[in-house]
Design brief:
With 395 residues, this protein is of the alpha/beta class. The protein is built from 13 helices and 15 strands. The strands form 3 sheets. An 8-stranded mixed sheet has the order 10-11-9-12-8-13-14-15, sandwiched between helices. It has a 5-stranded parallel sheet with strand order 2-1-3-4-5, sandwiched between helices.
């Protein structure tokens, strides 16, 4: 992969992937980054590469709302403020594998780069997780999207040493806090109204039991208009630099904030129940992602509530067949078992993934987490009744 960086007096090392240019020469590339301070013609350079189907990012160390507006108006894919931490995300969006990452001369390692120790049965592995933005979106409600996003974020925060943040981007009817049994006094609205764009602490609530950072949706649905696409892009840009994993719960409408969240995602999880209509709705939505230049590789289908109606629901094998006939097939990342105890745990104000009754759901979330952060899933626990049956079987 060839990356061009248009920058004067660059402090970046050049390597096999990155080439620094101080003047515009229409050189071909797979990805182009243009410094905001590049003399005169950066809009012309952007236009040239965009018209030739090449992704372009604006580089600005002081990325703010004004820079995002400028980049969007010029047709850029986004704004990069730190090459070492944010270039991998840009490369993923462009559909390329990550190889060598440019670094500044004498630059110290990023403090929030955490190495996750993974203990496996026979050997140890190290997995580096950083700057992951996982967006959950579904065409319609009722598929358990919010229950998945909240419990996934809680599980990752509790069972790994990663810094995890959960953002409720369903600005009108978000109920992330309700699922977690919380009543925080702050929300994303505090950050918007405060205008202190770099001080993200004004809207973060920290869950004491797990250490999970949570940004709630506005309490009043009438305030949903305050969470614009511009706000979503800026806040996720900040969070992705400060947290290892950002889990974003979105609403079913493809509004501007949802679109910007999806554009910044490193993985988009699309929950659907094992029924024909939700699966077909996912198929109808795929052209929307294609129009936004979202790589098909980051779209993952999650089958939720499997086993709720074993007689009438579509079998998993048949769902795989349905997905394969899509114009652009997507991967089925995980299957989450239906667990009747989840509703009761939520109604009692408990978090299902910690509940002793909801073992099937907890095991499913554990398996899903393991697909995202290898090694984070634990050994599956069996319900007590199955243990008793097994004991009698061997007697």
């Amino acid at each position: 992969m060839k990356i061009l960086l248009y920058q004067v007096n660059s402090q970046c090392r050049q390597n096999n992937n990155l080439e620094v240019l101080e003047e515009f020469n229409k050189e071909p590339a797979d990805l182009v980054i243009i410094d905001e301070g590049f003399p005169d013609r950066w809009e012309e350079i952007t236009s040239y590469y965009i018209n030739n189907g090449i992704p372009v990012y604006l580089y600005s160390e002081d990325a703010g709302i004004e820079q995002f507006r400028k980049a969007k108006a010029a047709g850029c894919w986004g704004v990069i403020s730190d090459l070492e931490s944010e270039l991998p995300i840009a490369m993923r969006k462009a559909g390329h594998a990550i190889t060598n990452i440019p670094a500044r001369v004498n630059e110290k390692p990023i403090k929030n780069s955490i190495t996750l120790r993974v203990e496996k049965r026979s050997q140890g592995h190290q997995v580096v997780i950083r700057n992951q933005v996982i967006v959950l979106w579904a065409p319609k409600g009722g598929v358990g999207k919010t229950a998945l996003s909240t419990n996934l974020a809680v599980y990752l925060s509790k069972n790994t040493n990663l810094k995890v943040c959960l953002v409720d981007m369903d600005s009108a009817w978000g109920n992330v806090t309700s699922v977690l049994g919380l009543n925080p006094e702050c929300s994303i609205l505090d950050w918007v109204e405060g205008r202190q764009y770099e001080d993200i602490r004004t809207c973060i609530y920290v869950h004491e039991q797990t250490g999970l950072s949570i940004i709630a949706a506005p309490q009043n649905p009438a305030d949903h208009g305050a969470v614009t696409g511009e706000v979503a892009q800026k806040i996720l840009s900040i969070l992705s630099r400060r947290f290892d994993i950002v889990v974003v719960d979105t609403g079913p409408m493809f509004k501007s904030s949802t679109i910007e969240a999806v554009k910044m995602a490193t993985m988009v999880l699309i929950p659907a129940t094992p029924d024909r209509t939700p699966i077909e709705d996912v198929q109808k939505a795929l052209p929307l992602f294609k129009a936004l230049n979202i790589p098909n590789e980051i779209l993952k289908l999650v089958i939720n509530k499997q086993g709720e109606d074993k007689v009438n629901e579509i079998r998993i094998d048949d769902i795989y067949k349905l997905v394969q006939v899509f114009n652009e097939p997507i991967e089925i990342l995980s299957v989450v078992k239906k667990d009747k105890s989840v509703r009761g745990e939520i109604n009692r104000g408990n978090i299902p993934v910690f509940g002793k009754r909801s073992i099937k759901f907890t095991n499913s979330i554990s398996n899903l987490a393991d697909k995202i952060v290898p090694g984070s899933g634990r050994i599956e626990k069996k319900p007590l009744i199955k243990k008793i049956r097994g004991a009698f079987f061997w007697m």
